[in-house]
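Re: that chain you flagged

S.,

Sorry for the slow reply, it's been a week of failed gels. I finally had a moment to sit down with the sequence you sent. For the record, here it is as I used it:
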Amino acid sequence: MTKPLLELRDLGGDGLFTSWNSEPNWQKAHNILVPGLGQRAIKGYFPMMLDIAERLLAKWHNIPPEQFFNLTDDMTRLTFDTIGLCGFDYRFHSFASDKAHPFIEAMVNGLEDSMNRMHLLEVQKNYASRKSAAISKACSICLK
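Prediction finished late last night. Pasting the structure tokens below so you have them in one place:
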């Protein structure tokens, strides 16, 4: 397993991408996800993906020409909304508000922290307690 994925284990536990192939949860996640990624299933996602894309376009259509927007944030929202709806039949309604859904915010914070932790020495990780409360909160939200 690569270093970034090892760091993500703190955030996501031993799931499909963050477990060793020999761990029981890897096989469980694999068995659950594979049927949902077949050709027939993917074709069924198209109407939902189109719906989310249209919501993003509607948001952009309503932005005044002189106003800037954060493309990275919108692509993150598009990604989570699409995965949420297609994979879990859950709507984050990300384009209805400027504030990110708590799960999305926690996931982004956790991913950013994992990427930052990758470059630290073990001794630095042990003393990086200032953010530990925020990371614990992000982990608890993501693991619900």
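What I noticed first: The radius of gyration is 18 Å.

Talk soon,
D.
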